[in-house]
TrEMBL record:
GO CC terms: plasma membrane
SUPFAM superfamilies per record: MetI-like (SSF161098)
Transmembrane annotation, as ranges: 35-60, 95-116, 123-141, 177-202, 222-245, 290-309
Protein name according to UniProt: Multiple sugar transport system permease protein
Bilayer topology: Multi-pass membrane protein
Comp. bias intervals (Low complexity): 8-22
Residue runs in coiled coils: none
Compartment(s) where it occurs, according to its Swiss-Prot or TrEMBL record: Cell membrane
Amino acid sequence: MTQVLPDRTTLPRQRGTGTRRTVPGRHRPGHVSTWLAAPSLAGLALMLVYPTVFVVALAFTKSSLARPLQRFTGTDNFVEAWESLAFAGSLVRSVVFAVVAALAATALGVALALLLHARGTRFGVVGTILLLPLVTPPVMVGVAWKLMLAPVGGAFGGLFAALGFPGANPLGDGAGAFSALVVMHVWQWTPLVTLLVFAALLGVPEELREAAALDGAGPWRTFTSVVWPVVAPNVLSVLLLELVIGLKVFDLVAVVTQGGPGVSTIVSSFEIFRTGMRGSYEIGTAAAETLVFGLVVGVLTTVVTLLRARAVRADR
């Protein structure tokens, strides 16, 4: 006779004590992951915590390049940095440079990513060519653009002459030099935005596009109602990255203008370099300027982070 087993759904549920049994020789996943992450955490502490503590110590002491940590000076270095007109001006120029460059690079990068995505889901040869400025060293970018903008023999000399500005020298006046640095920076870092936004566009569900097309939505309506809500958090993350890159610009200034003409292109990173590595080598003051500059960077990045969090909540 065949024995009929009762259905699992008809078996009475046994009430236990609520405790989970552990299998011998088995560890909790969290315990294992903590031990696996220990070497990385130790390396992070060594590479991040120690330099940060050392910079803070320099900022509160009389320190030079040859003799650091001579004596405690309290907030004297911060007062000197705050009263420095050169450093205050460099903060303003850094913020303006970073904001303008980040917005321009993000806008151009999004536009290029949309054009590339309209061609298909592959980045292709055109996309690869667009990445060439990104892999070019900043020093070479500065040298190449400086040669092209030279008033005599420069590649743009004929263009300026055709526009009615023969012998024009954009690097010869403050506004022109600052604008030229922004253009160079945007030219180099726009491909990064293009690459990241293109990857984000690949994550937009095709069903949403098809539904929008069935509803009669045009390209602009599809972008604003379907595509943008999905990729907006990614775009704001890229904007945050571009903002940080713009705030830490140093190579272009050092190679192209050395902060000139006058002080028109001295940004905070270059001013901190001048304070600590030129003249009196006031490392303590330079460390205080670094902390103040870090506070400004933190405020700006916090604003963008809050905007991104708002975009994520709106998408949900």
